[in-house]
Write a sequence for this structure.
């Protein structure tokens, strides 16, 4: 789960990391009020769960409350990479001396937390890695031991930090590691981490991703989940215990198991079609679940045909066939549906379908044939 | 031979009286698995379909000589269950549970490495050596004893491919589902190493997907260290960036995490990479003919 900048900063403050004073506004008038309260130059920043908002015009620095209102008027409702801006963060200004970069992620290969630090902040870290890789310091932390003082020293000396800045960065680093483990984060990124002219070290931005599997032990973070920002179908699927991802195409896809569904999408693309979604119905042949899944897939108006790809393992093919029949009857879907059943009791399952299903349901024996058929039928 | 589980496997089921644990223990008992014990804290002294239940893994190991464990406990207790089995002497541990927090897994995998133990999973279907031992939730009926080793990040996709192999009369030495999470106990390379050392395995199948770069690292390993032919398949060519495709670890988050990049790396290393599951079986048949 991704946190908005203002939520991420709230988390960092709880772990003792300093940020600038800020107020969240949802209307231009609230933005004006906030700017008045903060006084002087302020930044009006779009709150969206995507990068590149600066380039998209989602951040404006203004000198008066009226200008803040105008800026908020422009930014609120703006579309940034498919995300609608519904909130802005009004933040006080600061006299910045240097911009740095600091993040902690989970390194999948090393199976350890990885700290990245650079004296070149404010730009994309991938860009820094390409142009001046020598400016990046990398440190792996042993998850059982935690961050050690010598590692913080190593970072300081490798990066050539001195005086107040060195001290300030060291403190932020140990606090950020605490935040990373304390909040079960898979990413905490401060870009830029700035040193002000009066020697303070502050987080000017915050990008935090919390591991979804850990949300049961972070109720306060789970409550921040933004229902409005989610795709309505994705939201519905989540509530029904289904994994659904909306895509751009017109062949609706359902299957059991994440790997098999991904593979089904690929095979549809190879057959010349474009998948409309990813949907994993999981194990079991429950008619309820299949109905809910069919409803979600076909509520996308782009969908022209549906491909239902099931490999019966422990769930037997005949049970799946019965569940599917009930679901089709209930949902009253007229779109062509191609069913491919394989694995345990698949023949029996196919026989049940052949005998009982309405005309818009077609069965195929292999994944490839089913994909071709679904693409063909979608073209009408 | 075979790898990880075989006729010497003496299995303890952690969470044997739970819904999932009970259901799959029943299935494993019907097969070739020697299930010697179950563990559910507080239910020690009972028995489950003839299998004695203990309060702790330590007690189960002491009383029954269990040497392998499979875990079905809920995600919030899984890390603790893995630590318990490792501390009780289990050196092959299979965690089926989905949704184990990443930070728990970081600690577990770190600890495991100090003990020279093998953890399969979490969020995996388990391990099966057909005709010898089934420590998994996989449907035993689709397997056939034989000489092809299968290693995969996915469950049903493995069944799909194994079924195609079996239908062609190509049997399997061992099939390992390593799991779909970002942090897993055992990676492709560690399993491929075991297949390479197993005299019974004549060809290996690697089933990967989007996310991370484990497939690229495996490609390097296969090219430099393996004589056993390998057939690979990667799923997720059509996955968009930044969306989790079911498995927590299946997410495109940069150039080298795409299915395209992985397949290219495999082919560049001279490895047969199939474009769909049926082609995997064809390529395996071809590899076995050529030897």
């Amino acid at each position: 789960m991704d946190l908005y900048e203002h939520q991420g900063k709230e988390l960092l403050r709880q772990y003792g990391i300093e940020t600038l004073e800020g107020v969240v506004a949802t209307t231009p008038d609230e933005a004006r009020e906030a700017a008045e309260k903060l006084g002087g130059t302020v930044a009006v920043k779009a709150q969206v769960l995507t990068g590149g908002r600066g380039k998209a015009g989602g951040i404006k620095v203004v000198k008066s409350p009226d200008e803040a209102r105008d800026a908020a008027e422009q930014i609120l409702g703006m579309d940034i990479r498919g995300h609608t801006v519904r909130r802005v963060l009004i933040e006080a200004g600061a006299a910045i001396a240097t911009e740095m970069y600091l993040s902690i992620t989970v390194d999948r290969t090393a199976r350890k937390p990885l700290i990245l630090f650079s004296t070149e902040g404010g730009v994309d870290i991938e860009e820094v890695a390409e142009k001046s890789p020598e400016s990046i310091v990398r440190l792996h932390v042993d998850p059982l031991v935690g961050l050690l003082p010598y590692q913080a020293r190593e970072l300081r000396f490798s990066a050539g930090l001195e005086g107040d800045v060195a001290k300030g960065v060291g403190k932020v680093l140990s606090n950020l590691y605490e935040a990373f483990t304390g909040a079960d984060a898979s990413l905490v990124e401060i870009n830029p981490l700035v040193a002000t002219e009066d020697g303070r070290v502050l987080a000017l931005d915050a990008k935090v991703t919390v591991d979804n599997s850990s949300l049961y032990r972070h109720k306060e973070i789970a409550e921040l989940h933004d229902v409005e920002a989610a795709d309505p179908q994705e939201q519905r699927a989540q509530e029904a215990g289904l994994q659904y991802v909306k895509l751009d195409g017109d062949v609706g896809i359902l299957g059991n198991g994440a790997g098999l569904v991904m593979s089904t999408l690929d095979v549809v693309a190879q057959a010349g079609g474009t998948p409309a979604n990813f949907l994993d119905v999981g194990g079991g042949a429950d008619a309820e679940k299949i109905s809910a899944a069919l409803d979600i897939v076909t509520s996308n108006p782009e969908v022209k045909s549906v491909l239902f790809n099931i490999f019966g393992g422990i769930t037997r093919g005949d049970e799946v066939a019965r569940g599917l029949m009930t679901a089709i009857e209930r949902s009253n879907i007229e779109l062509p549906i191609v069913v491919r059943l394989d694995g345990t009791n698949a023949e029996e399952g196919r026989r049940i379908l052949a005998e009982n299903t309405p005309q818009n349901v077609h069965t195929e024996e292999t994944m490839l044939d089913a994909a071709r058929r679904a693409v063909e039928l979608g073209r009408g | 031979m075979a790898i990880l589980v075989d006729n010497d496997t003496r299995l303890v089921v952690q969470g044997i009286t739970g819904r999932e644990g009970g259901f799959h223990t029943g299935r494993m008992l019907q097969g070739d698995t020697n299930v010697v014990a179950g563990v559910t804290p507080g239910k020690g002294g009972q028995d489950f379909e003839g299998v004695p239940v203990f309060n702790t893994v330590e007690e189960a190991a002491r009383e029954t000589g269990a040497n392998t464990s499979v875990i079905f406990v809920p995600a919030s207790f899984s890390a603790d269950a893995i630590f318990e089995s490792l501390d009780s002497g289990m050196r092959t541990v299979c965690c089926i549970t989905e949704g184990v927090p990443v930070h728990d897994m970081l600690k577990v995998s770190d600890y495991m490495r100090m003990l020279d133990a093998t953890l399969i999973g979490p969020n995996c279907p388990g391990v099966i050596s057909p005709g010898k031992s089934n420590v998994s939730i996989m449907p035993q009926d689709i397997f056939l004893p034989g000489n092809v080793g299968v290693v995969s990040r996915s469950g049903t996709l493995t069944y799909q491919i194994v079924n195609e192999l079996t239908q062609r009369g190509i049997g399997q030495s061992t099939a390992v589902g390593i799991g779909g999470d970002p942090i897993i106990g055992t990676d492709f390379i560690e399993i491929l190493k075991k297949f390479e050392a197993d005299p019974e395995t004549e060809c290996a199948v690697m089933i990967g997907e989007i996310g991370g770069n484990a497939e690229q690292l495996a490609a390097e390993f296969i090219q430099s260290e393996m004589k056993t032919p390998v057939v690979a398949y990667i799923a997720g060519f059509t996955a968009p960036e930044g969306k989790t495709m079911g498995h927590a670890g299946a997410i495109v988050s940069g150039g080298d995490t795409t299915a395209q990049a992985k397949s290219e790396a495999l082919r560049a290393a001279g490895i047969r990479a199939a474009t769909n599951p049926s082609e995997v079986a064809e390529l395996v048949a071809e590899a076995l003919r050529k030897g």
Observations:
- Residues 54 and 286 of chain B are 49 Å apart (CA to CA).
- Chain B touches chain A through 59 residues (CB under 8 Å).
